[in-house]
């Protein structure tokens, strides 16, 4: 997950100017002069507060997906219907990753420095967590198994995302060149990207025979081409951010209504496939055409939600921004937290009890209790690790400084005085 925080404002009067900008009614913290001309590469001059909320919401979908996958009950129709919503998390994150990368890089980028920083903050955590999850699985501890997991991102079910992220970083200069060279045809590129994802999702769903490429369809998770359309859509959205944000502000009801309609269509299609004889797991698989449309619709609804939040006072801003800052660590850590919770539920007999309870009740507990609990515990652990020397390796973030009280407070503590 790519950080959405823009570079600090460097203009004269930077701090005062930044505070004034952050107080703007649009909630974006726009620095003076941070405009993006049509057809030009975006200039990174502001913190996009709405992106923080989008990231927080998307991490919630990720955790929800894994909570449902580890549910101690047999897959049910209701379980699959919920999965049709949570499944869009990976696609939304690829859209968000491309959006942030495109918007946060300036017109001229020193690519060696770009790669050095990006790979440091992703490759190191990827290696560390591959080792941790390799041992957390309880064996067999074979060298060939570890190498295979390291190369394929299969030490745990979510690590593929880091492999794909590293592939995005590798080809990102080429993507920027494409966007600049084809700036008059971004509409055509957008259509091409969506059509590609629709065709690819159908190919995976129905396992088309593509000869040498058939292996790709059987194991598409950790390969960038599987998500190329989403990356291109996210980059084009960032290139035309001003127009996108302006239109979304004016058409909030249409965005929310469209998203609700698409979600209803997706669930309806899923129920139709189940009625046609498909098992819930197969009918609710992530690679299918309706998920493509649903992912775009939900991502747009998240953008609208973030804009509304940013423009109406940013309620709970400290919590949202701190959670956004910890999101990568939460993403890396939460499967281990879920594993611990599942072991505890099994040892205490709760897992066995869940198998005798109604599916609706079990799923309600999972979504309304276990999901936020996992999010909370993962966030607290990430915050604690952030203040240790292993922060980079475990959370993909530099070590957070320990807060230092103001000098007057230190004086009071030293002298034992009171206000």
UniProtKB/TrEMBL annotation:
UniProt similarity note: Belongs to the acyltransferase 3 family.
Region Disordered, residue ranges: 1-39
Highest taxon listed in the record's lineage: Bacteria
Annotated Pfam families: Acyl_transf_3
GO cellular component: plasma membrane
A GO BP annotation: enterobacterial common antigen biosynthetic process
Topology class, membrane: Multi-pass membrane protein
Single GO MF descriptor: O-acetyltransferase activity
Transmembrane segments: 53-74, 80-103, 119-136, 156-175, 187-204, 224-240, 252-271, 291-310, 331-354, 360-385
Keyword flag Transferase: yes
InterPro entries: Acyl_transf_3_dom (IPR002656)
Domain Acyltransferase positions: 49-373
Biased composition range(s): Low complexity: 29-39
Protein name (record): Acyltransferase family protein
